[in-house]
Amino acid sequence: MAHVLIVDDEKSIRRTLRDILELEKYKVDEAADGLECIVKLKQNNYDVIILDIKLPKMDGMEALERINVLSHDTPVVMISGHGTIDTAVEAVKKGAFDFISKPPDLNRLLITLRNAMDKSTLITEKKVLQKRVKKQSVQEIIGQSHGIKEVHETIETVAPLDTRVFITGENGTGKELVARWIHEKSQRSDKSLVEVNCAAIPSELIESELFGHEKGSFTSAHKQRIGKFEEANGGTLFLDEIGDMSLNAQAKVLRALQENRITRVGGNKEIQVNVRILAATNKDLQSEIAKGTFREDLYHRLSVIIIKVPALNDRRDDIPLLVDHFITSVCAEYNMPKKTIDSTAVKGLQKINWTGNIRELRNVVERLVILGDQTITKKNVEQYAVANSNQRTALQSLFDKYHTYADAEAYLRSEFDKYKAVKA
């Protein structure tokens, strides 16, 4: 039985609509104002909400915004005795399913409710299908080493809880994959997992990205935009490379974690959010705290549970399993017959210093599949993996010595100039 909430300050309107809808076999609740509507929405799941615009305590437009945050997929049909075309357009822009003038034409109202129900059903079916696809698409965490078993066990323990998890590890170890599995096994798996790469967003835009902005709040803010916190409402927000976040943004994230409320850039209205936070970094945050580039109070807020993902060099026994997995996936991706790899080639891969971890291994395996023989040999590894590794190690040693790539480049240019002078 479909569940409908009628929100109107006129008791006679509520009673009339209730009688009609109950005859049509709907289950009906009532609310006399916007605040009561929000309270009931937090207590129940509704298939459709019929919402008046002129309401005491909280008007219909503001209630509509709150509904979009609390239950974004619930269709809202706006009704008003003071309706204009501009009002109808504004309501639809803010997410209303439809707008009906008072007194409502009952046939049109019933048709609108059925259409809204159809939309709600399609959204539910879409979510179920997306969840099935997502479960199939979340890559398995491969490995039987002690470190990986500990990661598996910790995920199983903490995923069902809403506790915050801090994931550490070198670049390329699979921190994002750990975050996805925590979300997948959590009570929020039917909601969104929103990922934010803090290192990839310029510092002047990170606040807008996380918290959203109001129209006109800065030069290019041509329209209102919701941020990642609102987008992840009810689900999980994964803050990757959080060690690169500015101190100003860190302060706002800390406040959001403490109060479960955010304010859009350029706005003054607080918005309630219900988000589970996962964070990750490849930096040593204790040293960042000592340098004053990361807030200690934020670190303690985030690191209720810490999961350290081991480097590939610390789990070389997993390389045969990983190589087999990558060969299978790469061959499928390129629609090639599956290649095999001999044991000497695998042992050769196990001896490489994997500074790029799993990501680097995957790229090397892809290169071996494309360029190697049908059975990948030790010779192929020496041609397409070891040579690349030696070159990378030499470049890395230069970087370690000169600290920045610009300094390393300057050194190489000076050496090349000396070589040219000698040859001349």
Describe the structure.
With 424 residues, this protein is α/β, with parallel strands linked by helices. It folds into three domains: 3-128, Response regulator (Rossmann fold), CATH 3.40.50; 138-310, Rossmann fold; 313-418, Orthogonal Bundle (Helicase, Ruva Protein, domain 3), CATH 1.10.8.60. The protein has 17 helices and 14 strands. It has helices at 11-23, 34-43, 60-70, 85-93, 106-137, 146-158, 175-184, 206-211, 228-231, 247-259, 285-291, 296-302, 319-333, 343-350, 357-371, 378-402, 405-423; strands at 3-7, 27-31, 48-52, 76-80, 98-101, 165-168, 193-197, 236-240, 261-263, 270-272, 276-281, 305-308, 340-341, 375-376. The strands form four sheets. The protein has a five-stranded parallel β-sheet with strand order 2-1-3-4-5, sandwiched between helices.
Write a brief caption for the model:
It is built from 17 helices and 14 strands.
SSE blueprint:
Blueprint: E1 3-7, H1 11-23, E2 27-31, H2 34-43, E3 48-52, H3 60-70, E4 76-80, H4 85-93, E5 98-101, H5 106-137, H6 146-158, E6 165-168, H7 175-184, E7 193-197, H8 206-211, H9 228-231, E8 236-240, H10 247-259, E9 261-263, E10 270-272, E11 276-281, H11 285-291, H12 296-302, E12 305-308, H13 319-333, E13 340-341, H14 343-350, H15 357-371, E14 375-376, H16 378-402, H17 405-423
Parallel strand pairs: 1-2, 1-3, 3-4, 4-5, 6-11, 6-12, 7-8, 8-11, 13-14
Antiparallel strand pairs: 9-10
Helix pairs in contact: 2-3, 13-15, 14-16, 15-16, 16-17
